[in-house]
Every structure is written in structure tokens, then in C-alpha cells.
Specification:
InterPro entries: Chorismate_lyase_/UTRA_dom_sf (IPR028978). It contains two helices and nine strands; from the N terminus they run E-E-E-H-E-E-E-H-E-E-E. By secondary structure, it is mainly β. Strands 2, 3, 4, 5, 6, 7 and 8 form a seven-stranded antiparallel sheet that branches. A two-stranded parallel ribbon has the order 1-9. The two termini are 28 Å apart. The mean pLDDT is 94.
Length: 135
């Protein structure tokens, strides 16, 4: 079991980008990034592996233009039923429940720079989030 305490921390082990194709902003992504629906977004899905080589989590990130440094972030915890792609990547059954952490990185004015979904299998993670000081 791992414990997630910082939704903005770098993954300390091996990770691999599995998809980097551009995406159009859905209604949800447009709201999260404060962009028009349909705007072209950069996109990256990364599979994070534990030291034994097992998939520990999936991180899917969306942003506009070039990535920029952030000064703070927000994180919201929820639960999601896994679709076929996520379930297969994590070695779980379709419709299995997983934690979903929605992380949004912000600039100094509080504007969203990028947003991400962290998908964590419930059988491998305990989530303990606490407010953090601005960076």
C-alpha cells in the first residue's frame, strides 16, 4: 500500500508516457482550464510503475501551449468506475472502482495552467491530502 499525501509531487520511480496526442477541450476540461469548449489542448497520459514494475497509477494531463511553471495547485478527491483502457493499464477489471484526484496547477494570479486526473487503484493506495503552502 502506498499513501498519497501530495498530489503535486514528482513520481520517484519509472514512468512512461503512453499517449501524447492533442485533444479538444470537453465541457469539463474547458471549465477546469478556463478555455473555450473545443479549444485544442496538449495532452499526455503517463503510466507510473512501482519498484516491482506493476502499474501504480495513471496520470492524464491537459494544458494549452507550452508548459509553464506553477506556484500552487488544487486537488479534489473522488471515485471513478474504470473503463476498459484504464482497467487494462492498471491490471484491474472493467468497472472496478479507483480513486480519482483532479489536480489543477495554477499561476501566481490563480489562473489554471494545466489540469490532470490521477487514477489510483483503491487496493494499492491510501489518500491523505492536506492543504499545502504556496510554492
Amino acid at each position: 500500500m502506498r499513501t498519497l499525501t501530495d498530489a503535486d509531487a514528482d513520481w520517484p520511480f519509472f514512468s512512461e508516457a503512453t499517449d501524447t496526442s492533442p485533444r479538444r477541450a470537453t465541457e469539463e476540461l474547458a471549465e477546469r482550464l478556463d478555455v473555450p469548449v473545443g479549444a485544442t489542448l496538449r495532452h499526455e497520459t503517463v503510466e507510473c510503475l512501482d519498484p516491482g514494475g506493476r502499474s501504480a497509477m495513471l496520470v492524464t494531463t491537459w494544458w494549452r501551449g507550452e508548459r509553464q511553471p506553477h506556484v500552487s495547485f488544487t486537488a479534489e478527491l473522488g471515485v471513478v468506475s474504470l473503463g476498459r483502457g484504464h482497467a487494462h493499464a492498471l491490471g484491474l477489471l472493467v468497472d472496478a472502482l479507483a480513486f480519482r484526484v483532479v489536480r489543477t496547477r495554477l499561476d501566481a494570479q490563480g489562473r489554471p495552467l494545466e489540469t490532470a486526473d490521477l487514477i489510483l487503484p483503491m487496493d494499492r493506495w491510501l489518500v491523505r491530502l492536506a492543504p499545502t503552502a504556496q510554492r
